[in-house]
Inverse folding.
């Protein structure tokens, strides 16, 4: 059996602001789950661009051993390179052309997100961390998206470390999960909304975190951006 402790270096946090993006934080917790431009088969888009930026701030309720929702950030994003969504992308995510065409570009959305984050956290007194399902949202998609705005976006420190909930699920349940649907099924939890809807995935990840908390999971950082 795989030794899951070898997958990452432990870094324990005693109190969190968790933001949930699909792909954001623990304030206890923060969770972002991005949706991006995409196509099927041989017509894969390069680069992909974030078109949905959802994040739910939750706070650890130590009395209940679960996470309470504090605030929510959600915005669709207008792509600047592949400006027209493919039929495949709309079918997969439920995001239509009008939803992104009438939305701000990523640099404005990210500024709004950072302002929201700052309004709800006190980094001098509280620890906060991003929670994602997998490493793609922050480790790949977010970093590549920021490269499209080299003069206006500098990745803030709070976006450089995150919890991959799949790794903590593996440590708690003994088997690495395939994805959100698999984690919900294995914890006998009901799915909320649609998979590949960023904001719905945020809600589902909170459900999974509550299930892991009930099973004694210790929430700890699993990944870090080494260089940008």
């Amino acid at each position: 059996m795989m030794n899951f402790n070898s997958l990452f270096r432990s870094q324990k946090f005693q109190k969190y602001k968790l933001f949930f993006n699909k792909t954001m934080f623990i304030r206890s917790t923060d969770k972002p789950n991005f949706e991006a431009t995409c196509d099927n088969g041989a017509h894969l888009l390069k680069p992909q661009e974030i078109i949905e930026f959802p994040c739910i701030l939750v706070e650890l309720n130590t009395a209940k051993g679960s996470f309470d929702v504090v605030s929510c950030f959600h915005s669709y994003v207008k792509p600047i390179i592949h400006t027209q969504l493919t039929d495949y992308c709309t079918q997969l995510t439920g995001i239509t052309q009008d939803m992104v065409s009438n939305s701000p570009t990523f640099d404005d959305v990210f500024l709004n997100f950072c302002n929201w984050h700052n309004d709800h956290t006190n980094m001098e007194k509280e620890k906060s961390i991003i929670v994602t399902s997998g490493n793609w949202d922050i480790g790949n998609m977010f970093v590549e998206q920021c490269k499209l705005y080299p003069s206006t976006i500098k990745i803030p420190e709070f976006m450089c470390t995150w919890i991959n909930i799949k790794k903590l699920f593996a440590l708690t349940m003994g088997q690495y999960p395939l994805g959100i649907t698999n984690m919900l099924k294995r914890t006998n939890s009901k799915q909320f909304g649609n998979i590949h809807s960023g904001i719905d995935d945020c809600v589902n990840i909170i459900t999974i975190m509550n299930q892991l908390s009930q099973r004694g999971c210790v929430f700890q950082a699993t990944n870090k951006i080494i260089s940008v």
Q: What stands out?
A: The radius of gyration is 17 Å.
